[in-house]
Amino acid sequence: MNRFGMNRRGWTLPVCLFLACLNASIGLAELAQPAAMPESDGNAQPPNFVFLLVDDLGWGDFGCYGARFNETPHIDALAGQGMTFQNAYAACAVCSPSRAAILSGCYPARLHLTDWIAGHNHPHAKLSVPDWNMRIDHERILLPEALKESGYTTAFFGKWHLMPIGQDDFDQHYPTDHGFDLNVGGREWGQPKGPGRYFSPFDVPNLDDGEPGEFLTDKLTDAAVEFLEATPQSQPFLLYFSYYTLHGPIMSPPELVAKYKAKAKTFENTNNEHLDPARAGMVERLDESVGRLMQTLDTLGIADNTVIVLTGDNGGNFQGTSGGLRDFKGFSHEGGTREPLVVKWPGVTKAGTSCDEPVIGTDFYPTMLDIANLAPRPDQHQDGLSIVPLLKGDATTLSRDALYWHYPHYHRTAPYGAIRQGDWKLIEFFEDGRLELFDLSKDPSETTNLAQTYPERAERLLQQMVAWRETTGAQMMSDNPDYRPEEAGTVTRQNRKKK
């Protein structure tokens, strides 16, 4: 048992077989003496990437972002070694569109993938939802595909949730169909649904069930560590770890539930944090996972040439996870989309720094290409910007006018669009055209609607957002002929039929 309290088991068979093939292919490639890979900022070896995406991560869930009930020493240490962003955003308030934006570098509106798969059904709502997309088109070259074309090994671990449930091409959209060499755990699920949920048995691809009582976050971390340990140091890689945690069902090892129950009894909740012992245990297990990965990179001697990115796909799933911001997952306000973002780029990004410039999920694709000294692909990552100037300390702002959100669906929020330009944020609600305007520099919790106070500013931002929707081909809603006000709030799970 190691210092993280986990027994190390043998490799999962799929990971073992994949890495055996990888080593063999590298040996053949060395014999063939291919052209050298691009060098990055003086490094003979191209940089490795560890991208960590946490599900339902609230802006206030980590100690480095103000949490006091949750304990995150390893993540806090990572933040101390890199840069934290104070205005980092997910591209949507729910998961599937946000995940697609990261991989494609495109806004969900441009992809027409604008809701979690398979979405909700409101048959009697005032507006009808457009016929949106439940897949990323294969014609798009995604981030892992771009890196793979440049010699990277690409491995995916955890939650995928980008498959068109119930449609003909369902089995053509696994991670391995979109540029990943290896998939451990990714399938159509948006949350663990195996017999044990977060506990064994798991019922996810290419991951053994281990021993009774083993925890899913730990088992996926085992597989990721095995990948790191067996990948030759001459082989650059993208390890894309998309955690199922912190999504429900909220489950945690019993000893951690007991620990945080005891802590809650004496905890002075001055910041209105979410005091759920089981969820706090999930955060701790996440933190231990991050710590194990960092320790493995150090042990292997590759930490200095590995860029680590840690962020989330949408806000936390409960009030009190947003660090004082308004609302949480599924809402139009800041708590639904503002995310922690920590980037460690050894030897380049100054340790312990912070950045206030707004950035968004579409930016990771061009940023990682830039870090790897690879040519940008503006025809692919159409809405992203490289944040390398921020990471290098060469600039404090980006040459971007505004950020946008487009959600023509019903969830916890009514359908809406939003724009952030500088410190100003405008929300348009599609049902009635109602506008909300906030000055985030003075009112980050969005308590005071200034749309009537500054009508000209509100109208100017609205027209800019309308023009952006036209440019991106955003799908709009239409009047619903089956609208029944008395039943409009009814929510059911939507499993769409084949087209």
List the helices and strands and how they pair.
Blueprint: H1 13-32, E1 48-54, H2 73-81, E2 83-85, E3 88-89, H3 95-104, H4 108-111, E4 120-121, E5 127-128, H5 143-149, E6 153-158, E7 182-184, H6 216-230, E8 237-242, H7 254-266, H8 277-300, E9 306-312, H9 334-337, E10 338-339, E11 341-344, E12 353-355, E13 359-360, H10 364-371, H11 388-392, E14 403-407, E15 416-421, E16 424-429, E17 435-439, H12 455-472, E18 478-479, E19 492-493
GO molecular function, one term: arylsulfatase activity
Domain Sulfatase N-terminal: 47-373
Family: Belongs to the sulfatase family.
Tally of structural domains: 2
- Provide the CATH top-level class of the largest domain: Alpha Beta
Q: Supply the CATH superfamily name of the largest domain.
A: Alkaline Phosphatase, subunit A
Number of strands: 19
Distance between the termini: 51 Å
- Tell me, what's the shape? globular
Q: What multimeric state do the chains show?
A: single chain
Q: Percent of residues in helical segments?
A: 25-40%
CATH architecture label name of the largest domain: 3-Layer(aba) Sandwich
Note down, in words, how this protein is organized.
This is Arylsulfatase A-like enzyme. It comes from Aporhodopirellula rubra. Residues 1-29 form the signal peptide. The chain is an alpha/beta fold and 499 residues long. It has two domains: 46-400, Alkaline Phosphatase, subunit A; 406-493, Arylsulfatase, C-terminal domain (2-Layer Sandwich), CATH 3.30.1120.10. It contains twelve helices and 19 strands. The strands form five sheets. It has an eight-stranded mixed beta sheet with strand order 7-6-8-1-9-11-2-12, sandwiched between helices. Strands 14-15-16-17 form a four-stranded antiparallel beta sheet, with helices on one face. A three-stranded mixed beta sheet has the order 10-3-13. Helix 2 packs across helix 8 (277-300), helix 6 (216-230) runs parallel beside helix 8 and helix 7 (254-266) packs across helix 8 (277-300). The N and C termini lie far apart (51 Å). The model is unreliable at 1-11, 26-43 and 490-499 (pLDDT under 50).
